[in-house]
Each structure stands twice: as C-alpha cells, then as structure tokens.
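Students often ask why we bother encoding 3D structure as a string. The short answer is that it lets us treat folding as translation between two languages. Here is a chain of 254 residues written in the first language.
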Amino acid sequence: MRFDVLTLFPELFAPFVEAGITRRAYASGQIVLKLWNPRDYAEGNYRRVDDRPFGGGPGMVMLAEPLARCLAAVQADRADNDPGPVVLFSPIGQPLNHAAVEHWSAGQGAILICGRYEGIDQRFIDAHVTHQISLGDFVLSGGEIAALALLDAVARLQPGVLNDEGSHLEDSFNPAVDGLLDCPHYTRPEEWQGQRVPPELLSGHHAQIERWRRDQRLALTARQRPELIAAARAAGRLNRADEAVLAKAGAAGL
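And here it is in the second language, the structure alphabet:
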C-alpha cells in the first residue's frame, strides 16, 4: 500500500512514521509513504505556490500549475504510472468515519493533497481530484492534520501493527461488531482517589464481565450518540437483553 502526500510542510510527517505503534506499518513496508513538496515544482526564484484570489477577498489561493506538475511527477513515479485515487482534504468533503477508514485500509493507497491558505484553485480540483474528505464541521489551517489522521487510522488496521490483533474489533463505531461506542476501561490500582474499579471487572466471571461491558456500551452510546443506537437497531444488531438495558436507562425507542 502506497500513500503519496503533496504538502508544503513535509517535515510534519517525519515524527509520525518514526514513533508510536503505527510506525510498525511503515517499518515493515506494509505502508509506503512518500512526501512531495509542490514548491519544488514552482517557477521563479521565489518558487511561488500561491496568489491573490480573483474577485478580491482575504487570504491567498494555491496555484493550480505547481500542484499539477507535482501530481504528474507523483503519478509518473507510481508503478505502471498508476494515477491512483487523488484525495483532497476539504471542509466540503465526505466526513471521515470508520467505514471510510476500512475502505482505505483495504485498498492500494492514494495520493493525498494537503491544501493551505484560503484553498486551492478550483480548476485543479475539477481536473484531478477524485475524492474529498473532511474531519468534521470545522476548518484547519491546512490538510496535513487531516492526512495524518487518515494515515494513522489506516496504519493501525494493518496486520501486526497492534499488539493484539483483535483489539480494533472493539473500537468505537465498528459496524463489524455493532457500531456502538466502546466501554470504559480500568487498570491498577483497584482504588484510586476513592474511586473503585467496578466489581464486575474483578469477578473473574467472563460472561458477567462481557455483559457489564455490553451494558456500558449501550448506555454510553444512548447518552452520547443516540443515532448510533437507532442505526444498530435498524441493522438488527440489538437483542432482547440489549433492549431491556436501554429501557432501564430510559433510552427505549430512540
């Protein structure tokens, strides 16, 4: 799997591939990450990559030509001149969720465009971008943080990256399980600042522990993200015991 990133700040990515659990995906070669700076493909002594917007207004807009040249170099460098999906991180993009992460983690990679300033010349987007992704209803100063978020989420799903191969199955939002939020977690000591670990987790009774975790996930999801309960119910992922827990929590009929 190969990801190429077009960014004016390639130095932001170096610590990411050298630290933390997800570094294993890069060290093993499961994910190949190449960084490309559009400034290297700009003309003139100043290697200018932006200019003022037509029609006036604040801020600057990234020029189409340096991006197009940089993208052409990336595509020529990929195997068999594979153009690959071209992803732009943008507020108008589709929200990044678990299903989208699973889609990208099972693919061959992509070319990621990290915009800056007020945006990118629309003509470049119309000509080359195949997908647009958003992290949510807010604006970042550039696409690098969004690109890192996608890369991190994809890397941790690669085989051998996590210590426990099954740990990602218990992640929040995983539709392969039920799409609910994860339950609370506890570790030593058993009592901390007057707060004790729930006795169910200390019982050693596996069925009781699993029921407690399931109940917690249901109650937490109903309280924090009720739309996920509705989606799980519509998909037939809730059983009679689950519905009894929701009724007790006052969340029946969500």
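Translate back mentally: The radius of gyration is 23 Å. Keep this in mind for the problem set.
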